[in-house]
Amino acid sequence: MDGTAGAGDPGDDREGAQAGSPVARPLAWPAPGAGPVVLPSLLSADFARLAEQVRAAEAAGAAGLHLDVMDGHFVPNLTFGPPIIAAVRRLTSLPLDVHLMVELPEALLPAVAEAGADVVTVHVEATPHVHRALQMIRALGCRAGVALNPGTPATAVEPLLAEVDLVLVMSVNPGFAGQAFLPLALDKLRALRAMLPAAGPRPWLEVDGGIDPKTAPLAAAAGADLLVAGSAVFNQRAPVEANLARLRQAVATSASTRP
Ligand code: DX5
Ligand code: ZN
Fold it and tell me: b or e along 42-74 (b: 16 or more beta carbons within 10 Å of the residue's beta carbon)?
């Protein structure tokens, strides 16, 4: 599963890249449809031992790290911003998948790109000018993602599907780790998958929230390429390596027994 080097990178000759904009770093993720892979979310990591936790995820073969930036407005919680992203960047060469839960994220984009993000995802609900924000992300040399809250229909991002590298389906209301998976995300993943071309380049489909060994196979079967997992990876029950292995095993077992 994880670590199919370079196979899926749609960024090299992506449409929409603006002349003169920096070229995005290659991303060693499987091509959309060839995964899935698990991205640990640092939101559930022990921030007092951040370096140790990042290294544990890397040693366990994580395909990348998911970083949740919250502003206390778009979501009722605050986390961290560019200085912490830059610190994580110094700790690892893993792809950094930055999820901005921030109102009017445009102003933050240059600092997030400068901090070393590989993928920057903005919410379709967070700005009236999401198309412009996505163009800005690519112009800054990053992959552009668009996210949908649970209450937002898949059709809200349909006009943007040719302009993005990733679509993030929230399977909880964003703001906190450890919430229960909302099954409505499965229908949304299937609806998005049906909107995307059957062959040729297409964005990765990512799911975020409540992913554990029970829900990960469901999300994968519904079309998710990237499975974000916070509390199922970083917890007191088992080491990061064992938790990641359990998630991968659950997905692999379910895929091999699927009719
Ligand atoms: C929630 C964040 C998620 C969070 C997921 O708003 O976007 O990335 O870390 O945590 P779990 O996997 O515990 O639901
Ligand atoms: Zn997230």
Answer: bbbbeeeebeebbebbbebbbbbbbbbbbbeeb
Tens of pLDDT along 129-186? 999 999 999 999 999 999 999 999 999 999 999 999 999 999 999 999 999 999 999 9
**By three-state DSSP, how is residue 84 classified?**
helix
What's the CA gap between 117 and 139, in Å, rounded? 13
Q: Which two tokens stand for residue 91?
A: 């700790």
Q: Is-catalytic flag, 208?
A: yes
Would you say 123 and 90 are in contact if contact means Cβ atoms under 8 Å apart?
no
Token output for 47: 């921030």
SS3 of residue 241 by DSSP: helix
Asked whether the beta carbons of 63 and 37 are under 8 A apart, the reply is yes
Q: Is 145 annotated as a binding residue?
A: no
Q: 22: CA distance to ligand 1 center in Å?
A: 30
In the chain the domains, ranked by start, together with CATH numbers, are: 34-257 (3.20.20.70)
- 46 an active-site residue? no
Q: Which of 42, 43, 119 to mutate to test the pocket of ligand 1 (most atoms within 8 A of CB)?
A: 43
The answer to whether the CB of 105 falls within 8 A of the CB of 81 is no
**Residue 185 annotated as binding site:** no
pLDDT digits (tens, 9 = 90+) for 180-220: 999 999 999 999 999 999 888 999 999 999 999 999 999 99
